[in-house]
Write a structure and sequence with these properties.
Its cofactor is Cu(2+). This protein has about 190 residues and is an alpha+beta fold. Helices cover about 15% and strands about 30% of the residues. The chain binds 2-acetamido-2-deoxy-beta-D-glucopyranose (3 copies).
């Protein structure tokens, strides 16, 4: 098949000039029946169609069944992911990999511990990038492959599953798009 310029241009028009990234290690929260119940089938379908795509694509097509906050863990629900809950210890070092599919629009990124009841970060980010993706990083690059150390201050706040998640957050400033992945954990 030959790509014509017009063909490429229309492909770009369909996909837009969007960035794409998603956490693949550890395996983050995914979709399930609870998400469909709380976010609605329409939003869930748009999010699932492109798991590395921006949350904004989904919230532009909300219906009356949209009752979740897609900006918290991409609308993925703890109830749909209980089997992925991680027991961690203070000081544990966890390796992450972000699958960066396209980074047309740089922005900011961080990894934070999020209180799932309030959607507020607990403490300061564990890792913070003023520029993400960081084209000067590596090799080996440390914007998509990095480690996070579990702080020793979470024993009470994160003592059982469903209270806290490690959230990777990327905001691409150029096109104002948000990318998130969450890992549920509790401190044992
Ligand atoms: C993480 O980065 C995003 C985008 O810059 C920002 O909105 C959010 O407040 C940051 N989180 C923390 C805990 O600083
Ligand atoms: C990545 O490596 C650079 C250069 O060594 C360093 O300045 C930066 O802090 C590192 N970032 C992370 C997130 O490890
Ligand atoms: C994809 C995945 O791991 N789904 C699981 C999320 O958690 C629920 C409840 O433990 C499981 O039933 C799913 O298989």
């Amino acid at each position: 098949m030959r790509y014509t310029f017009a063909g490429l241009a229309s492909l770009a028009a369909i996909t837009g000039v969007q960035s794409h990234a998603v956490m693949t290690t550890p395996v983050p929260r995914g979709t399930g029946a609870k998400q469909v119940e709380l976010c609605g089938a329409l939003v869930t379908t748009v999010l699932e169609r492109d798991r590395a795509g921006p949350i904004e694509n989904a919230v532009t097509s909300t219906d009356s069944n949209y009752k979740c906050n897609a900006y918290m863990c991409r609308g993925y629900q703890y109830e749909d992911n209980v089997s992925k809950l991680r027991a961690v210890t203070a000081g544990e070092v966890i390796a992450f990999h972000i699958d960066l599919i396209a980074g047309h629009h740089p922005g900011y990124a961080n990894v934070s511990i999020v209180n799932l009841a309030t959607n507020k970060a607990i403490g300061t980010p564990l890792v913070n990038w003023a520029d993400w993706p960081d084209s000067t990083s590596g090799p080996p690059r440390n914007d998509t492959d990095f480690t996070v150390t579990i702080p020793n201050t979470l024993a009470t706040a994160c003592d059982v599953g469903g209270k806290c998640a490690i959230q990777w957050f990327w905001y691409a400033t150029g096109n104002k798009q948000t990318y998130e992945s969450c890992v549920d954990f509790y401190v044992q």
